[in-house]
Amino acid sequence: MTSIHASALAIGYGKHPVVDNISISLQPGDLLVLIGTNGSGKSTLLKTLAGLIDPLHGDLTLLGSPAGQMPTRVAYLPQHPVSSHTLPLCVQDVVAMGRFAHLGLFKRSTDRDRAIVLESMQRTGIDSRANEPIRDLSGGQQQRTHLAQVIARQAEILLLDEPTAGLDLNGRKAVAELIATERARGVTVVLATHELADAESATAVMLLAQRVVSMGSPAEALRDEYLRECFGFTQPH
Amino acid sequence: MRLALLGGILVACTCAIAGTFVVLRGLAFVGDALAHGVLPGIATAMLLGFSGIVGAAIGAAVMMGGVSVVTRKFRLSGDTAIGLLFVGMLSLGVMITSRSSSFVGDLARILFGELLGITQSDLAWQCVALAIVAAIALVSRRPFLLLSVDDGLARTSGFSARLFHNVMLTMVAITVIASFQTVGTLLVLGMLIAPAATGSLFARRIESMMLTAAIVGSLSTYIGLLISYHYDLAAGASIVLTAVVIFALAAIANEIRKSRSHDHHDHEHPHVHGEVHVR
Predict the structure, then answer these.
(1) Which CATH superfamily, name and number, covers B2-264?
(2) What count of other Cβ atoms lies within 10 Å of the Cβ of residue A173?
(3) Domain residue limits at A140
(4) Shared domain check, A79 and A6
(5) Which phi and psi angles does A80 have, rounded to 5°?
(6) A124 and A168 inside one domain
(7) Do B205 and A93 touch (CB under 8 A)?
(8) Are A11 and A48 found together in one domain?
């Protein structure tokens, strides 16, 4: 089954389109990288895929259902997870919130849920801080915690909005490895980023500037004329 | 005096549960507006001679419904809608109360409570309110936690942000309605915020934050009643001021503890600031 399908999709807020005529077709294990300047529509597209914003028009399905209908199978990491600086919760409890979509209101968390939470913390390298309040951690460590929360959902589609923001070199490498591992398990990933290097291993790249500038393989979508059109510069060769 | 202490402790426990989520979700202004929104309902009930609790419930429902309508229909921010309804309902409450022959006494009783005049029937109502608030918090614990982080996180986890936000407001309204007899509509916010804020300084889990808030609230009730008894001061205000002072002392102690811990950590691990961030 196609993981994400969009055709003639227009996205935006209210009645004002930010980007229109978007077409996407992703299979399990694919990685789509969204690249563009601030305000180009990357986050708006991810929010639409997550079901937080309704599409203005066009067709959009995730795993055969409309966006926002599959909370256990789709996980979303927002650009700046909020409230971490005031939340009096320890890291493992924040990560455990990633299981709530599966548990609903009444199911009790099981040993399996706890094992998934531990494994997610280990994979993002935050397990040594499991019992510390998240508000006492650095921005990068908080970002790892939120990433672990998303991984803990064990979803089939991951929507990640700048997951490497605030991470040091090791953290960025860990995120790249994490994405590779998830893809190997058949998870489809849509990643919004400012980093052209993140596109190297992508199945497809979409270059955005309040419209789709280019879409295709990294080599096709990141051609010099498209980069110049989008950013005003080209990649050093 | 024993009834007053028992009533105060019941209010402290109810406020600890609701206040924890008020502090986490940043609903202090909404809590304040609800606390004042019940005023016209209580005033009308006093004037017409029916139950103040029923009047407060009607006032809270009008306040919550009004905020929702003004926010959606007139495209105003939540803060503006709450502010408008807040002053409107407060003024209406004062106007209705001014029709009473004992205007000043009635208004003071509503705003500042009458803890020492609490009855067995009031205690029974507070027990019911505590049970309802605890049940709501238990059932809605997961969506409430997600909402405390982000509305979007709640929605993408399969919970309706709007539904559970309204459930949370209802829980706060029940707390306000059940507590106005004890500390009054003006001071109930203090019992909602101060103990929970104290709990948030030290807690690493929601349960420990609620427990700390309940202990701080109950302790404030005991100390406040003692101060009120010995110095002939208003009971409700003494309790709330005690809760705020406990918060201030706890915040200072927490800062000292953190700075000592930081100094110790620097001494033990002087390399910690050498972390390199590439971006």
Answers:
(1) ABC transporter involved in vitamin B12 uptake, BtuC (1.10.3470.10)
(2) 12
(3) 74-154
(4) no
(5) -130, 85
(6) no
(7) yes
(8) yes
Mean pLDDT of A155-178: 87
Domain boundary residue, one of A92, A122, A154: A154
| Residue A5, number of CB atoms within 10 A of its CB | 17
Quick one: A166 and A66 in the same domain? yes
Contact: B199, A88; criterion CB under 8 Å:
yes
How far is it, in rounded angstroms, from Cα A135 to Cα A137? 6
Band the pLDDT of A30: cuts 50, 70, 90.
Answer: very high
Record: contact A81-B150, CB cut-off 8 A: yes
Write out chain A residues lying below 8 Å of B143, CB-based: 100, 105
The residues, any chain, with a CB within 8 Å of residue B118's CB and separated by 6 or more, are: B3, B4, B7, B181, B182
Measured between its terminal Cα atoms, the distance across chain B in Å is: 63
Q: What is the pLDDT of residues B134-168, one digit of tens each?
A: 999 999 999 999 998 888 889 999 999 989 988 99
The interface predicted TM-score (ipTM) is: 0.86
Last residue of a domain, one of A132, A154, A176: A154
What residues does each domain of chain B span? 2-264
Residue of B nearest to A67 (CA): B156
The pLDDT value given to residue A191: 93
Section B97-113 average pLDDT: 70
Q: Which helix (H) or strand (E) holds A187?
A: none
SS3 B19: helix
d(CA A150, CA A148): 5
Same domain, A196 and A228: yes
> Is A115 in the same domain as A164?
no
Q: Does B205 touch chain A (CB under 8 A)?
A: yes
- Chain B, residues 61-120, CB within 8 A of chain A, namely none
In chain A, whose CA is at the least distance from the CA of B157?
A: A101
**What pTM did the predictor assign?**
0.84
pLDDT averaged over every residue in chain B: 83
A150 and A226 housed in the same domain = no
Query: Do A196 and A231 share a domain, yes or no?
Result: yes
Query: Whole-angstrom Cα distance, residue B85 to residue B187?
Result: 19
Q: What is the CATH number of the domain that holds A194?
A: 3.40.50.300
Contact list, B158 vs chain A (CB under 8 Å): 71-72, 101, 104
Choice among A25-34, A176-185, B111-120 with the minimum mean pLDDT:
B111-120
